[in-house]
Amino acid sequence: MNDLHATRLDLLAGGSDARTEMERAIGIAQSPVCAHVFTRTMFDEARQAAAASNPDSRLSGLAFTAKDLFDIQGQPTPAGSVVLAHAPTARADALAVARLRAAGGVLTGRTNMTEFAFSGVGVNPHHGTPANVSDAATPRVPGGSSSGAAISVASGAAFIGLGSDTGGSIRIPAALNGIVGFKNTARLTPANGALPLSTTLDTVCAMTRSVRDAITAHEILAARRVTAGNAPLAAYRLAVVKNVFFDGIEPAVAAAFERSLKALRAAGARIVEIELPELAELATINATGGFSAAESHAWHRLLLERSGAGYDPRVAQRILRGATMKAHEYIDLIHARRDWIARVETALAPFDAVLSPTVPITAPSIASVAPGAERDDEFFRVNALLLRNPSIINMLDGCAISLPCHADGELPVGLMLWHAALHDDAVLAVALQTERALQN
To answer: Alpha-carbon torsion 203, 117, 71, 53, what sign?
Structure first.
């Protein structure tokens, strides 16, 4: 399946055109593989926009999708819920949507998500759960919360899946579906017009089919140019953090990760194993519920009073945890995080990027975590495992990218490259070389 870059070259060479590519994308979007992927489609408008597009623009009239929490002018912003289905319509596009459109992208629809973005699994009891693209025999979870956005990209229905990442909501579905998900340093991309989960941790970012497409999407969303360079892997010093990230790891994930390290070393990478004892402090730092619980409750408290029965019970349970956090506990959390970040940044300073499994498990079946109180224990166990590794980087205010690293015929596994805040260009540079090494 071609990525955005290759498709654009084909368009510019006259081998295809935006109308043809749009019809291909819409055909996939309407096929069974995209069942439950969209909460609202805009195919007629997309056809018109593609026909009028400029092939010389950065996105050349090609399809992108937007997670259901982004404002789109003239539409309500339900965020995967039913309680906001009749909310006032947006007066303007979210800035991220507007930037992708201005770059020549064509929006084909709003994508399904975990209600209010509060889970890493991707299950939605209101709109159905889109099935992972990796296994036709067993419907598996897509990962969340940007579930539909991931399937739109992995299936071929879109080249860019616009989403958000608060604790891994871009990287988790990217890893489980075998695509690329880049979480930039949060401050680089505007959240204007995106319904919040945690104003401290939310990051507006996207999923794509390649690292070079991730760079293109980031440059558009952040209105900046990436300086990635083309240095070989031997030019970078990489770390593997051995504690926490490998706890509870499945054999298939461990094997894919070790194969990746072997391929990188063969390509000249210098990889050092380190311990990061500061990771053991996170449970204590977040013991009162963390930023997501406190900040989501501040946003949802009145809506919960009016319409709490309409919420996914699993989501409501997590939001309501924020009701018990005291003001001094929230302020203590801010200070503790600031101190923790400073110490972790010092520990990572000698390295250009860190390598970890994006998540320690492959995608479980939808049936095992489907809505129902009898499956709540398994749901929350899976959710905690999926969120554990990527959420560390959100707490760090860092940047990270997930790349597919599994072999053909295996369930998808993600390799995460990450670092502290504003190391985005270095992480992307290493990711470009890593992708090449893994594909050789």
So the answer is: positive
Beta-carbon contacts of residue 412 (< 8 Å; ≥ 6 apart):
132, 134, 175, 176, 177, 178, 362, 363, 404, 406
Amino acid at 206: A
| Unique residue bearing structure tokens 């593609």 | 50
* Whether the Cβ atoms of residue 118 and residue 319 lie closer than 8 Å to each other: yes
Give the span between the Cα atoms of 246 and 358, in whole angstroms.
10
- Domains in the chain (CATH in brackets) are 1-279+333-440 (3.90.1300.10)
pLDDT in tens, 383-423: 999 999 999 999 999 999 999 999 999 999 999 999 999 99
Q: Residue 27 is inside which H or E element, if any?
A: helix 18-29
Question: Which residue, 48, 45, 54, is CA-closest to 11?
Answer: 54
- Strand ranges, E, within 345-430: 353-357, 399-404, 414-419
- Closest among 56, 40, 174, 54 to 108, alpha carbons compared: 40
